[in-house]
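Need the bound structure for glyceraldehyde-3-phosphate, inputs here:
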Amino acid sequence: MRTPLMAGNWKMFKTPAETKAFFEKFLPLVATSTHADVAICPPFVDIAAAVEAAAGSRVGIGGQNCYWQNKEGAFTAEVTPAMLKAAGCTYVIIGHSERRQYFHETDETVLKRTKAALEAGLIPMVCVGELLEERESGRTNEVLATQFNGGIAGLTPEEFAKIVIAYEPVWAIGTGKVATPEIAQDTHKAIRDLVAAKFGAEAAAAVRILYGGSVKPDNVKGLMAKPDIDGALVGGAALKPEDFAGVVNF
Ligand SMILES: O=C[C@H](O)COP(=O)(O)O
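Answer from helper R.:
Posting the output first, comments after.
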């Protein structure tokens, strides 16, 4: 039985003061529902405020990226997974499509970051997903296989057992165009099949695969009703306490 995970990705939004204000409203709204794990991934500068505000609650904090080694060094603006861990993080998002699209991250660097995050004891949420033109030309499964085989497939079975996969169709991110539960289910199943082929049936049955892309309180139930959807990676709706609580308490 896979415990759902509802993770909020704040992207480049909120200050430390706004982070504190968010948690003051959000925590009471999710205090009684325990059917899902909950995570918030704020910008790096808000992590300390988020960790402090979430202390003693069921909400884990995560980074939105990390560097691919834990050894400190002269890499301006980078943050090691070990630093995130020391700051109180439990999770880290890796390979988000915005990182791939605007900051040239590749499947190869996604793999390196994932390994470093695991080494530091973080739970990586590794993102995959196709562009609109790739879906429209019928290449979704091929693109996902390439991302999977070039990235996640390079983990050892022991490493793989500790990650979460996030499927985010790029055309559904921030557009209001959520994938239908049927489209999301088909694709999640295809990803689970890739996992089974590489790591075996047991690993495929155990791994959590989150859906991301315009998830809101009013569409989360339909998505979560599908057998291969194990939670959500939420952008816009995670910025408002009431909306994210609506997703968490689906
Ligand atoms: O990481 C989250 C996703 O990019 C989804 O963003 P969104 O919920 O604003 O579409």
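Comments: Residues 181-199 form the longest helix (19 residues). The first strand starts at residue 5 and ends at 9.
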